[in-house]
Write a structure and sequence with these properties.
By secondary structure, this protein is mainly α. It has 8 helices and no strands.
Length: 166
Amino acid sequence: MSVADASAPRPATAPVAVAWTAAVAATAAVGGLGTDVSSRWYRRLALPSFQPPGPAFGIVWTVLYALIAIAATRATVAARDGDERRRIVWAFAANLLLNVAWTWIFFRGHRAGAAGVEILALQASTLLLIRQLVAVDRTASRLLVPYAAWVGFATVLTWTIAIRNR
């Protein structure tokens, strides 16, 4: 940590919130562009009985994306110095990239098995974020727990689909 980083003021919350809201909204938009539940490939999949109805995904992801943006904002503002702030930003950025990649691998690539492998990386990234944020902002860390739970469920769902449709 440099002297400049240690004495640097914390960023103002509003611009950080706007930036994270934009990043999360972009993730949702790009993911939405990649989602295609009307494709012939998707309609022919043998889906498990525990697959939630389509509208549930939109509701759940809207709430989760809001929680991610709030957590990212809180953690970025709460970071003790510039180095920690950069680590947090990169960790969230990587997580959002993994988040959107799943959609494109699964729906556009038609590769349920590859999406199953990719979602394991997303879950690891999410759990590491939760762990990383405990020391920075416990509330931010806790806000990501529902996201980790949903990704855990999505992991089971993805692997079930992959296995049932070999």
